[in-house]
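Researcher: Going back to the complex we discussed earlier. I've cleaned up the inputs and rechecked each line, so this should be the final set. Can you rerun the prediction on the complete assembly and write out the structure?
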Amino acid sequence: MNTECFAVDGFSPFTPEPPRFGLGTYTLPHAENEKPLLRRGFDAFGYVLNIVSVGWNPPAMRTRPRGVLTSASWSKSRELFNVHTLYSKRAYNDIVKDSCVSAVAAILDAKSAERLLRLSRSENNWDGEGGKALSALALFNFYNFLCQSKEAPRSLRLFLGADGELVTSWDLKDGSTIDMSFGDHQIELATDLYDEIFPVGDARLFQLISEL
Amino acid sequence: MATESKPERKYPARQVVLADEENVLRAIVEEEWEEGRGSPSIFRRTNTSVTRMDQIGRENAISILKRDVEKPGRPERELRGVGKISVELIKKVAATSVPVPKPGPRIHLQVWEEKIDPEGDNPGNPYHAEIVAYEAEDLQVEKRGKISLGYSRMLSKALHVYAVDSDGNVTSESEPLEWDQPDPAQ
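Model: Rerun complete. Updated structure for the full complex:
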């Protein structure tokens, strides 16, 4: 595990333990059967909690300390809810996204980092056909993927997907390419021989890539 | 591609199928463009907008795509290239099995004329068409969910890609890549 991945702007992680691959570390109960709006709220909390757990240091916590997060996840939820109320939803999402972009860009080469920054600036309907802006959660899943990967992708190419996915393409040792699409809840992989979808956190993804 | 208004309701959409030999152009914007080619995910939608190149010529088709993509008020939108593909090749790619150990559902594609009539500030596009994915070969039920990354990747590779500059002039081109890999199991 590359622990350097968890240092964002020199900030130490809240927890000494590395995060598990993907999300789900803090799955709040009752979310599955609730209404979509509530579900979205839970999802937002879910990814913020995970980002905090790997070292994200929201500006609100720097300038307006509201107490130390306890180890209990419910206490974390309440604390973050207070932070949430300080910002409009748009500003809040932008902060999360910018933090994710910074974290990922820090472990990419200059060209890829610049490209990622460009993609992150695209707004909804970037293609005139309703394409969604880059998802912070998708970015976070890519970040986790890079941290778990044994070697950095070679000749990385980055694209934006219609639903806000981060689409990647790079060259394999045999000269062929591997394409991946990092979404909010799943990661898709396509090569000349494979066309598969993995839930976020599925270790089989790394097993497959190691065999390519 | 890139039409911000829906097709005119009174227009009898999806009644005219494009001939197999016809070529269409798929617009490729900045977010889908790297190193002279398009993203592997540009065909993931179950209906992908294209423009009928053979009816008006490549340059005119590019002009329409630029006009539709680079709308006033959206300066960040930039057409970087277009991908040419024949209807026949679209169907051929869809009919190809991806040689995977766990193959996903096959796709079935049809290309329909889908004119867009002028409306307000929108000048329309009488050469607009759509690549539509269906659940089964009878083309009765449109596919739910997205086209898999594997099939989208094959379609993207099959494109003959033209890079265009800010004036819409073609500056370079890239031949179709090898999209049909032999199944090692055979």
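Model: Worth noting: The CA atoms of residues 169 and 179 of chain A lie 4 Å apart.
Researcher: Good, that matches what I expected from the previous run.
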